[in-house]
Write a structure and sequence with these properties.
alpha+beta, Arc Repressor Mutant, subunit A, nine-stranded mixed sheet, three-stranded antiparallel sheet, 16 strands, about 20% strand
Length: about 475
């Protein structure tokens, strides 16, 4: 009998913290705007002998904020440790990290799995460390840019609680949203400031055994996380089904070929020879200080989703969409509070035509300069039948490109909706009289032609006819011509 396997997935998420300076020195952490390689460096972040590290207080505050947002216990006594390994991007030959006593531990995050059922993922630990330098690989050599070396890095480690790729994606997506809501990480994965590492194994369905796992490093997009995890799960299942064994190793993801590739044998903690950092004292965090950080917690995505469902009578899926990005949620609230239209109508416009324009233009919500009151006014004009939905889309595109007042645009482009039955009746009658063949086909049972007739009305009136009035008159006119 062929075995059915289930995946066992744990994620390590690395996010650069938005601080002005690096983790253990005063060099600027904004390496992305550095004019040249190796210009934002000093003896500390390049590992020169005798240079002493000093902890970045802001990084500790931001890490504590993340720990609280993930329902963790904040450890009042936590320490730094040296993680020893040799690689060209690590100037000291070790990385200052945390090991036995991280800043936060034993948290959780509730996510939706592939069946939309809620699942609780345990957050094992949240710790702070320093980022590595960047390597630029040429044909026969590599160049090292130390501008990124020492940038504050947050690592969020889950327990291997996820059983589907969809659950892993849901968890990663929610972590990113929380980090952006907190303002501790930009979430710009294309810039490498948020990276995922997936630990994956498979086991027979119903088994509680933890089998040999592999780790896929440096996944810098949700697409890469999804594809790499799905591929590795399938690969491991095929290995077991063919009678083979899985080797514990570190893998890379070849996005072009769509395969995982072996990089090196997987290290365990003892391979890094962790020991307490002798140049830094333990961090002592008082209860009062921790509570002062707790007061800085904003309304997070889950709480905002629940409020949107209650206050605006939105469906859970609609509310989750709007709260997926803090800026999108804020824009929705600004529009809906200035609009007389139902919240569901506002959501439909934002989720539909507004997002379509952004996607087609390659813009993000942060790039939009459209005042919420202008968008609210346009939506209300549709609700009040001042302008048709189709023509409102034309107005919205104009507003997003050029700004202005929606009423003025409607007036200037002669887009006002016509609800006068006499005018619309003339148009409908002419269309029906000019197309007797189509009328007969419709009345013979070809009901799909109805949308064709409505399209003719829209074309004849340049989209200005009230669609409800036109529909009512069209139904009546077709019925009168039924033989």
């Amino acid at each position: 009998m062929k075995l059915t396997y289930e995946p066992v997935i744990g994620l390590e998420i690395h996010g650069e913290l938005l601080t002005n300076s690096k983790m253990f020195c005063s060099c600027s952490a904004d390496y992305g705007s550095a004019p040249e390689p190796n210009t934002l460096i000093c003896p500390t972040c390049t590992g020169l002998p005798g240079a002493m590290p000093v902890v970045n207080k802001k990084a500790v505050e931001l890490a504590t904020l993340v720990g609280l947002a993930l329902n963790c216990s904040i450890n009042p006594h936590n320490t730094f440790a040296r993680k020893n390994y040799y690689y060209p991007d690590l100037p000291k030959g070790y990385q200052i990290s945390q090991y036995e006593l991280p800043i936060a531990s034993k948290g959780y995050l509730d996510v939706l799995d592939d069946t939309d059922a809620q699942q609780r993922i345990t957050v094992r630990r949240v710790h702070i460390e320093e980022d590595t330098a960047k390597l630029a690989h040429e044909k026969n050599y590599a160049l090292v840019d130390f501008n990124r070396a020492g940038v504050p890095l947050l690592e969020i480690v889950s327990e291997p609680d996820m059983r589907t790729v969809e659950a892993a994606l849901s968890y990663a997506t929610k972590i990113r949203a929380i980090l952006r809501y907190l303002g501790v990480n930009s979430g710009d994965m294309e810039k490498g400031v948020l990276r995922f590492e997936a630990n994956i194994s498979v086991r027979p369905m119903g088994s509680s055994e933890f089998r040999t796992r592999t780790e896929i490093k440096n996944l810098n997009s949700f697409r890469a996380l999804t594809r790499a995890s799905a591929y590795e799960i399938e690969r491991q299942i095929k290995v077991y089904e063919s009678g083979g064994t899985i080797v514990q190793e570190t893998l890379g993801w070849d996005d072009v070929r769509g395969v995982t590739v072996s990089q090196r044998g997987k290290e365990d903690a003892h391979d890094y020879r962790y020991f307490p950092e002798p140049d830094l004292p333990p961090l002592q965090l008082s209860s009062a200080w921790i509570e002062s950080i707790r007061t800085q917690l904003p309304e997070l995505p889950e709480a905002k989703t629940k409020r949107f469902i209650t206050d605006f009578e939105l469906t859970p899926s609609d509310a989750r969409f709007l709260t997926s990005e803090k800026s999108l949620a804020n824009f929705f609230e600004s529009v809906v509070t200035k609009s007389k239209s139902p919240a569901k109508t506002v959501h439909s416009w934002i989720a539909g035509e507004f997002m379509r324009y952004l996607n087609d233009s390659g813009l993000s919500i942060e790039d939009v300069t459209l005042p919420p009151e202008s968008f609210a006014k346009l939506i209300d004009m549709v609700t009040e039948k001042t302008v048709s939905g189709n023509n409102a889309k034309v107005v919205l595109a104009d507003l997003l490109k050029n700004g202005g007042d929606p009423q003025e645009i409607v007036r200037a482009k002669n887009l006002a909706q016509v609800s006068d039955e006499g005018f619309v009746q003339e148009i409908v009658s002419k269309i029906l009289n000019d197309n007797p063949k189509e009328v007969d086909e419709y009345n013979a049972g070809k009901e799909t032609l109805f949308q064709w007739f409505m399209g003719q009305v829209a074309r004849a009136t340049k989209g200005k006819a009230d669609p409800n009035v036109a529909k009512e008159l069209m139904v009546k006119g077709l019925a009168e011509r039924k033989k």
